[in-house]
Structure formats: C-alpha cells, structure tokens
Amino acid sequence: MSNLKRNGQLRWSPSYLRNRGQITRSQKRALRQWWPLYGISFRHDEVIRLDEHFNQNGPLVIEIGFGAGDHLVSLAKALPDHRILGIEVHRPGLAATTQKIHNAGITNARLMRGDARLILTDHLADRIADAFTIQFPDPWPKAGDAHRRLIQPGMVNVIAERLLPDGELLVITDVDAYAAHTSEVMSSVKNWTPTSYSRFNKHRIETNYEKKALAESRQISELSFQLKL
Ligand SMILES: C[S@@+](CC[C@H](N)C(=O)[O-])C[C@H]1O[C@@H](n2cnc3c(N)ncnc32)[C@H](O)[C@@H]1O
Description:
Number of strands: 9
Bound molecules: S-adenosylmethionine
Largest sheet: 7 strands, mixed
Distance between the termini: 28 Å
CATH topology: Rossmann fold
Strand content: 15-25%
CATH superfamily: Vaccinia Virus protein VP39
Strand order of the largest sheet: 5-4-3-6-7-9-8
Order of helices and strands: EEHEHEHEHEHEHEHE
Structural class: alpha/beta
CATH class: Alpha Beta
Helix content: 25-40%
Number of helices: 7
C-alpha cells in the first residue's frame, strides 16, 4: 500500500522538489491548531471515506498542488455547495492554507498531505470527483526531466479512475513546453476529450505564482478535458 517505493524501487519519479523552504514557527502553530479541523490524516494502509470528513454533500473538486492555498480558498468561497479537497506535499503550504481556511470561515474544504498520485491510488477509492484542477504544476522544463512532470499517462489514468463520467480535468501552466506535453499526454490516453470551456475556470484567481509568470511575460495556457466513458 502507501509507499513511494515498492520492492526497493520508486513506483514513479516524484514530481515535486523535496526541500522547498523551511516551515516557520507560526506555520507549525497553525498546523497544530487547524490540521485537526481541516486536515485528513491517514494510516499507510487506510482508504479514506470522504463523507466521514466533510460536513456536507455536494460535487467534489480536487485541487492537486495548491501551494499557498489562495486559489483553493477562493474556489471554496465561490462554490459553497461544493466540497473542495486539496492535495499537497509541501508542509509550509499546507500550514498556510489551514490558516487561510480558518480565517475565511470556510467549512467546505479539506486537505490531504502527500504525493497526489500515491493518495489517489492508495488512499481514495471509486469515482468520487466532479473535477480535478492542477494549477501551475512544477515545470521541469529540461527535456531530461520531463519524466518528473506530474502530467503523465499513468497519473492521468489514475485521475480518470477517481472522476465521475463527464468529469473535468483542468491544467493551467505558464510553460509552453508543459502545455504541449499535456496535450500530447492527453491525446495518448483513452476516454478524454479536450473542451473549450471549463465550469471551474471562471473562479480562477491569480496566485502569486501566476502574477510572477505574467510579470515575466510568460503566456498562461488553460487546458481542459472531459472524461467520456
Ligand atoms: C509551482 S507550485 C504552484 C502552486 C499553486 N498551484 C499556485 O498556482 O500558486 C506547484 C505545487 O505543486 C506541488 N506538487 C507537485 N507535485 C505534487 C504531487 N505529486 N502531489 C501533490 N502536490 C504536488 C508542489 O509541492 C508545489 O506546491
């Protein structure tokens, strides 16, 4: 079950940087205080039932790699009748986001910590999500690092196993090579159709990451796909 290694070998190449900044004392405090309310902890062999963690029903949107959580919090505010589940590896980001959820008085967002692929494979089950959103995945711009990009056929197939029919995958990137890579991967896997419209795109806000990309004149690509079973 849950382990990045199987038989001593990595199951896939991690798509994130391991040491991205130190957690501050106030972030540690936020985690201690708010994780029990907004975080979902799990044992290495546990499959989570989300209805035991959300206090409401409603469509489920999963944001992978939410960083400092600004988009996640704004989505949860814009869609109070939806459940928003964030998955992130980075502890400072998780801490900052618990604090933002609390400050905004949001009750429809929950967080899981870990590699999204591991969580989707080992800790969630069934077709549960109406949409996945992945905003500015780590770029891995060098050709030799492309195997570390989050969007890979294996990952997309795992996402497809957790999506409801007609569910949506939204990928936003400021790296032209990543946009091309995403289109290529999506056309290589079964059951996905590119769409020109995303129900969730209109709720997008500019995160600090996006502001920096725009300031550096990088073009933002918004790619959306629907699962057609
Ligand atoms: C470039 S940052 C963008 C953050 C945020 N989406 C934004 O727009 O500001 C990418 C984020 O994805 C997270 N990430 C990368 N691979 C991941 C994975 N496999 N599972 C969960 N989070 C991941 C990283 O930790 C990082 O916080």
